[in-house]
Design brief:
The chain is α/β, with parallel strands linked by helices. The chain has 2 domains: 9-34 and 129-174 and 211-267, P-loop containing nucleotide triphosphate hydrolases (Rossmann fold), CATH 3.40.50; 39-127, no CATH class. Helix content is 46%, strand content 13%. The chain is built from 9 helices and 9 strands. It has helices at 21-32, 39-51, 73-80, 89-104, 110-122, 138-151, 165-173, 213-236, 253-265; strands at residues 10-15, 35-38, 63-64, 69-70, 129-132, 157-162, 175-177, 184-186, 241-245. A 5-stranded parallel beta sheet has the order 2-5-1-6-9, with helices on both faces. Strand 7 (175-177) and strand 8 (184-186) form a beta hairpin. Helix 1 crosses helix 9 (253-265), helix 2 (39-51) crosses helix 4 and helix 6 crosses helix 8. The N and C termini lie close together (9 Å).
Length: 267
């Protein structure tokens, strides 16, 4: 049965960093009435919930280095005390845990990423989403499959945005982001107004600090090592994959839309 608006529960978008996922996500949001769920936004939201309480101590005190794990949530809540008044303790504690790993420069374990994802996904009833940036490891894929099965929802399809590494490097180095409305531009392919300003809100666009060539190539390798096996696992469980080209002969909104819908039509 063809995918139709009103019948799709969730679609997952995957691809190398810089492959051109956002324009394809925009198509899925519009065509199927879905909402984008970005891992980056999830982390920012829960970090914000923790930062809002004004904790001034050392968050390392909540992590037991000898055991290699956090103290219990009950112990953390007791330590935070009155700072949790009027707030959801679970959300604040998730933000604290995310902040600990991000500030220490350590890899955020799947258990923390999964917990953050589940808490956010629950707000939508586990459906109506375009999943962006999750899952990124095979263990996260297993968690997603278990979660959707338990909640009676599913992933209808994976849209894989395919692009060559060198094309991605060129594309990413030229990428510019509006810091205000988050609209994405490219100095060559989709230039901001006068080469500097957002066409949507007028703010001056910026080059993200992590868009250096060294960091881009590191992310490309991470996709091969972790995200690709994560997708293959989902594939083996029967979730169809629609591959769309990251580069198009003519890059227009309609061309992007047509390439996405054509690929989905084939599955």
């Amino acid at each position: 049965m063809a995918l139709e608006k009103g019948t799709v529960q969730n679609i997952l978008v995957m691809g190398k960093s810089g492959a051109g996922k956002q324009p394809r996500i925009d198509v899925l949001v519009k065509e199927f009435g879905l909402v984008q769920l970005s891992t980056g936004n999830i982390f920012r939201e829960y970090l914000g919930k923790f930062n809002e309480i004004g904790f001034s101590g050392d968050i390392k005190a909540f992590f037991d280095e000898k055991k290699g794990k956090f103290k219990t949530d009950a112990a953390i809540a007791k330590k935070l005390g009155d700072l949790l008044k009027g707030r959801e303790p679970k959300d604040v504690i998730l933000g604290l845990k995310a902040k600990y790993f991000m500030e220490s420069g350590k890899f955020v374990p799947d258990s923390i990423t999964n917990a953050l994802f589940e808490a956010y996904f629950a707000k939508s009833g586990y459906k109506g989403m375009v999943l962006d940036g999750y899952p990124r490891t095979p263990d996260q894929s297993k968690f997603l499959l278990k979660l959707t099965k338990a909640k009676g929802t599913n992933i209808d399809a994976i849209v894989l945005v395919d692009n060559e590494d060198e094309a991605i490097v060129k594309r990413t180095i030229g990428r510019r982001i509006c810091p205000k409305c988050k609209k994405v531009f490219h100095i060559e392919f989709k230039a901001p107004r006068d080469g500097r300003f957002c066409t949507e809100c007028g703010a001056e666009v910026i080059l993200r600090s992590d868009d250096s060539e060294e960091k881009i190539r590191s992310r490309l390798q991470e996709f091969q090592d972790k995200a690709l096996p994560a997708m293959e696992l989902l594939k083996t469980k029967g979730i169809p994959v629609a591959t769309v080209p990251g580069n198009l002969p003519v890059f227009t909104d309609e061309a992007v839309r047509q390439s996405v819908m054509d690929a989905l039509g084939k599955i």
